[in-house]
Prior knowledge:
By secondary structure, this protein is an alpha/beta fold. The protein has a domain at 427-518: Immunoglobulin-like (Sandwich). It is 30% helix and 22% strand. It contains 13 helices and 26 strands. It has helices at residues 60-65, 71-87, 135-153, 164-170, 175-192, 204-207, 223-237, 270-280, 323-339, 356-359, 369-391, 406-416, 424-427; strands spanning 3-8, 11-16, 25-29, 31-32, 36-37, 47-53, 90-95, 98-99, 103-104, 107-108, 114-115, 157-159, 197-199, 201-203, 244-249, 284-290, 297-298, 313-315, 344-347, 437-439, 452-455, 462-467, 472-477, 484-486, 499-507, 510-518. The strands form eight sheets. Strands 13-12-7-6-3-19-16-15-14 form a nine-stranded parallel β-sheet. The protein has a four-stranded antiparallel β-sheet with strand order 23-22-25-26, with no helix packed on it. A hairpin with a 4-residue loop joins β22 and β23. The longest helix has 23 residues, at 369-391. The protein starts with a strand and ends with a strand.
Amino acid sequence: MRYAAICVATLCWAVASPAAQRPFLMGTSTFADYFAFAFENPQDKDFFSIHVDDFLNIPWTAFQNGTALPVSWVATVQGIQTNAVSSGKLIYLALGPLHNRTTLAGNVDASGNVTNNWAPQDSAGCYLFASDPNAGANKQVYINYVKYMVNLFHPTYLSLAIEMNIQFAKCPSQKAAYIQWYSDVHQAIKQAYPSLIVFPTFSADYMYGIADPTTWCGGTKTDASFGACFQQRLTEALTVPADRIAFSTYPLSWKAPPTPPDNYTPDVPLEDMFTRVQQTTTRKIWISETGWQGVQIASSYQHASPPSSCGIFYISTPTFAGDALMADYMGKLLSQAQAKKFEAVVWWENRDYLDGTIASACPCPGSNATCNNLEQVYQSGGTSTEVLYRYFGNMGLRYNDGSPRTPVFNVWTSYLSQPYTTTPDVSGGASSLDEIQIYPNPMRPSLGQTGIVFGQLPPGSRVRIYTLAGEKVQDLTASTVGIATWDGNNGSGQKAASGIYFALIEGAGEKKTVKVAIQR
């Protein structure tokens, strides 16, 4: 494989040359201005990561009782789904049952109001997976919610829990019960959707013990002891059922560790991390979310009411933040993805949701969208919420105005422009028609189902839908990951009638006919 060099100032890194082929998919999240979900610049990626997590909360009561879902919640979710379908891109759907990685997500009532901390907790705010008599019922509710979201979005990839090991660290007494609870959810979803690629994600920074002082495995900090700590947590993570091994990582912790005076700061251990993963498991590697700060961030910001003041800039430019350092990290990460044949990398933002020039100042200069958004965040959650919002606010491939963050964008597109190639093992696609999976079948639009997914197809397979009388209704082509989705419409965009249809599938030199149905 040949490589070329890209340099910004004095920083240089290797990128794949034009002769190379890219073995991994590249995506970004949809998180945008003031908690919006935006499907912008589809040309910048292969897929969108719809990182719902607990941002939208869950109508637990409605999913338990089978009553009507809150109208406002449904409108929000279906609006996101409409934009997702319009993008024409693959979908990675990232869901989570927990708020703050500790307790069950807020309950959305019939009027759309959210009640937080509604489930029983211990003194640390951890949901009582081990002792709540309703834990089993809540598990089934979560399964119902996941099925609703899968039937709505038809994702190619699905996460059922985000940064699962943060709960392990914050709630050690509930850890074993949470793993079992999650395992049951995973099994139920795989039974319902056998071809869907399902996995939780883990925080790599917590696995190395550097993101939080309580997560360190103990002893003197050296490259070797950091690696041993990660290895211990990796072995544990692999006991959780999953089709892939997926990591989030925001590795600024390696540049500014939170445990003074023990300030041993090795380089971000990308080579160590992914070498250990490949030596330990055959699961394909995902970077489910990652990023680097583009602007400086203070410990607090000035506000009139409640009163607060400008703190120290603990993430400073250019020591810890800035375009050059972001590009350097991205270059090293994507080089690992290329060499070790990851399945996918998700960069947290396509576009900054804060104006970096304004966000880097304290106090916030004047009345503008960035200052107004930050004021709303501060009023609703205080300093800690505002600083967290700022932490993720300027990691984009593009600046807030949509223009490319040139050093970072150039690294990203140097890989994105390479021809993407995969194998059935990497993609989840198949080499024959023997393992086709079809769901939901029948499709019931009255239940919110918006399409029939044909999975485990050889990439590029053709799927033609016919009526029982032999009239062609639709003609589909499977994606590079072996997925084709029929939205229930004919070639003119009109809804197909309820009834049984034939699907003629051709791929890998084979033909197969199956029956599918719509029940409106």
